Amino acid sequence: MIMSIEERLNLIEFRQELLFVNSDFSRFLFETEITREQQNKLFDLLDKLSKKIRSGEELNSTDYERKVDQIVPGAGYHFAESFVHLLHIEERWTEVFEGLYGNSPKFHHYLNKANSKE
User: Is-above-0.85 flag for pTM?
Assistant: First the structure.
């Protein structure tokens, strides 16, 4: 894909911002080469999922992972899990992570530990 100078500058600025923040989440985005546009679309997805939770709907991790893969082609379920898990650690969209993976044996110990700190 050929980028315009403006698109390239936007990408470089975004990647620089990620390095400056220097959190586990921002390093994850940097290492997986996510663009600002992809990040914003993923945040929009999390907002929609959060709204579903507030209206009493159940979340499905397979649907979530499929939607993430549409935003970040080839990302896979590990990326989708890590994305929302790292945000949970930062106490952002916690209800979404818990709605998606709260019953997963993989995250049982982590969530018990996280909930005991509250």
Answer: yes
